Amino acid sequence: MALRILVLGSGGREHALVWKFARSALVEQIFVCPGNGGTSQVPKVKNVSVGNNTFEELVSFATQEKISFVLPGPEQPLVEGVEEHFRKVGIPVFGPSQLAARMEGSKAFAKAFMDRHSIPTAKFRVFVASEYEQAIEYVKTCGFQVVIKASGLAAGKGVLIPETVDEAIAGLKEIMVDSVFGSAGSEVVVEELLTGPEISVLAFSDGYTVVPLPAAQDHKRIGEGDTGPNTGGMGAYAPAPIAT
């Protein structure tokens, strides 16, 4: 059966996905909502704007176009429950449920999960916005260099790596008082800084079987030589040579 695919997103990730999909003889048509200039140049691909992009409108579009499956690129729609909306009408979504996506959507939830299940993780404390003074006291007295993270989704930019205690306090003010990350900063994770190369290992699961992918490296800082503030990712590659 010829596949008709709906991809949600507008970034380089979505461009790479549709480029790969388009190379398959099994794929008849790919819709990208909203897509970008790159996706518009790929054979079999059509960028679409679906009303206000509400989940109900997306489901209606997918039903009309006889979509075979949906692939959300960004985390936000998954965290907001897009998978459930399509599942209700029998359209598969390649992505986690809203409950499972909470592991990505809330760093505080993920850290508590790891702590509860004895999964090794950096030392941490979680503070809500009303605990600004307590957070300041913690970074002054914890005894190690910290990383400050807005708990919610912030397009990959919600992690601050201060060099000094004063910078850490300034970072807390940005997130907890100035609300530079909006509701994503309603909770803040203050975490011990761990140094060294970083890799990402993803795995697919249907709830019964786990299939790991090769390790990848994502270069997040904006400057050369791993300098400057974090971004949503300046580039990534796999397999990562440091993984053994």
TrEMBL record:
Pathway: Purine metabolism; IMP biosynthesis via de novo pathway; N(1)-(5-phospho-D-ribosyl)glycinamide from 5-phospho-alpha-D-ribose 1-diphosphate: step 2/2
Enzyme class of the recorded protein, top EC level: ligase
InterPro entries xref list: ATP-grasp, ATP_grasp_subdomain_1, PreATP-grasp_dom_sf, PRibGlycinamid_synth_ATP-grasp, PRibGlycinamide_synth, PRibGlycinamide_synth_N
PROSITE patterns associated with the record: ATP_GRASP
Family annotation (Pfam families): GARS_A, GARS_N
ATP-grasp domain ranges (all copies): 111-207
One biological process term in Gene Ontology: purine nucleotide biosynthetic process
GO molecular-function terms, A-Z: ATP binding; metal ion binding; phosphoribosylamine-glycine ligase activity
EC number: 6.3.4.13
Keywords: ATP-binding, Ligase, Manganese, Metal-binding, Nucleotide-binding, Purine biosynthesis
Alphabetical list of Gene3D superfamilies matching this protein: 3.40.50.20, ATP-grasp fold, A domain (3.30.1490.20), ATP-grasp fold, B domain (3.30.470.20)
SUPFAM superfamilies: Glutathione synthetase ATP-binding domain-like, PreATP-grasp domain
Classification via NCBIfam families: purD (TIGR00877)
Protein name: phosphoribosylamine--glycine ligase
